[in-house]
Amino acid sequence: MQSSSKYTTPAVALCGLNVVRSIGLAGIPVIVARYEDFNEVKFSKYTKEYHTIPHPFREEEACLDKIISIAAALPEKPVLYYGDDVKLSFVSKHRERLSEYYHFLLPEEALLESFLNKGQFIDLANKLDLAIPKSIVAGSLHSPDEIRKFLKFPIFVKPNLKKDWRDSPWRKFLKERPHKGFLVKDFQELTNVWEALVGISSDFILQEYIFGGDDEIYSYHSYVGRDRKLLGAFIGKKIRTYPRLSGASTYLELVHNDEVAEIGKETVTRLGLQGISKLDFKRDSRSGKYMVLEVNARFNLWNYLGAKNGVNLAEVAYCHLLGIEHKPQFEFSTRYHWISLENDIRALIEYRRHDEWTVFAWIKSLFKTKVYNYFSWDDPRPFFAKIQNFLMKRIRPAKKQTMPEPRPSAKGNVKDIQELSIEEGVHTKDTEIV
Fold first, then answer.
1. Distance between CA 72 and CA 219 in Å, rounded?
2. What is the pLDDT of residues 310-323, one digit of tens each?
3. Is residue 104 pLDDT above 80, yes or no?
């Protein structure tokens, strides 16, 4: 075994700034590989090298060759980190070849595919008797009349396959906001948008809405070794998202919750998970029951908040994969909160409109000890690089690309969907934001 006094084996991170900071906080040298020419993570003090790689799916073979060449040029086999569903799917697809050059641990391929395909996850959850909202795949039914026989309103609509949804015609003309889906309040509203929905894509999920605000969403984060032993875990809670009810996280905290800890650990065991994972639960405000929303088997921004509070799952993974003796990490504080300030300001506007947050309560929350999505006092260059890049784009704007007008189906009403998106929207992202 290596000595744990100093980590020398590099990590190769197909990730963003939050994950890279969590790796760097452990003293692990980080090589970053992303397909953007510019990303603020390039300027982090933790980034020892930055490689621009081809897109994992648009130029799949070229991307694979480039990632392999990064490892092949190193004196020892590095540890691989992956920070979004696109890269997770890519690593899983090429796991056999990549394992010759990298250390990593994924769930079994069929299990992982069920996490990326919500229809398959519904089948798996029902088979394992996991508590999930009642759900159906749109393609299996043909009209709102059929749907209301199976589901109670309100209904949440979300994509089945994230990466496909991102590039779908619907995604291109919806509002560019970080939505994960949208809420349909009643039968009439579903009827208004149904033809437009199925005209754009039939591959989406309809799910009975779990009552409760964004602050009823909890997450169980863990790392499980090859022997199925739990090596580290912490519990997170969302406080605010943008947009509310369906958006990306803007303000997060860690909490001690024995019920979530028990349910999370039991669910990890039932699923037979290995490696890194995040299980999302929502507490039904009417029944008090926790329902499973989704499972992610990748590194994410929560790992930075966990590391600041005492449980660094990126370090746990590194030590496990390299055979370094390391004490399991379960003890965490709740001192640090995480904020994406720009989006949290936008979130406040929406929450105020629904009488859920006052300006005073929001300002009070800002006085808690925080880490930021971009800014850090001991790693400030990414923040200033992002500001500089923003200003340069405004000074020398790129040539605008004209987007074609959306074409509704013969009976569909695209305008209804666009108006709905202003309130709840839909978005699936190719980032580490969750």
1. 36
2. 999 999 999 999 99
3. yes
Extended strands (E) in 248-404: 248-254, 275-283, 290-296, 337-339, 370-372
Question: Which burial class, exposed, middle or buried, applies to 230 when counting CB atoms under 10 A from its CB (0-12, 13-18, 19+)?
Answer: middle
Read off the tokens for 32. 């970053």
Residue 402: both structure tokens together:
């004209």
DSSP category for residue 232: E
Average pLDDT over residues 68-76: 98
The DSSP secondary structure of 37-93, one letter per residue, reads S--GGGG-TTEEEEEE---TTTTHHHHHHHHHHHHHTSSSPPEEEE-SHHHHHHHHH
Instruction: Report whether 188 contacts 413 (CB < 8 A).
Output: no
Radius of gyration in angstroms for the set of CA atoms belonging to the chain, rounded to a whole number: 22
Instruction: For each of the domains in the chain, give its residue range(s) and CATH number, in order of start.
Output: 11-106 (3.40.50.720), 134-209 (3.30.1490.20), 212-384 (3.30.470.20)
Average model confidence (pLDDT) across the chain: 87
Tell me the whole-structure pTM to 2 decimals.
Answer: 0.88
C-alpha torsion 365→370→375→378, nearest 10: 150
Q: Are 288 and 316 in contact (CB under 8 A)?
A: no
- Distances in Å between the Cα of 143 and the Cα atoms of 81, 140, 193, 201, 212 are 43, 10, 11, 14, 28
366/360 Cα distance (integer angstroms): 10
Query: Cα 261 to chain center, whole Å?
Result: 20
What is the spatial distance between Cα 193 and Cα 415, in angstroms, rounded to a whole number? Answer: 9
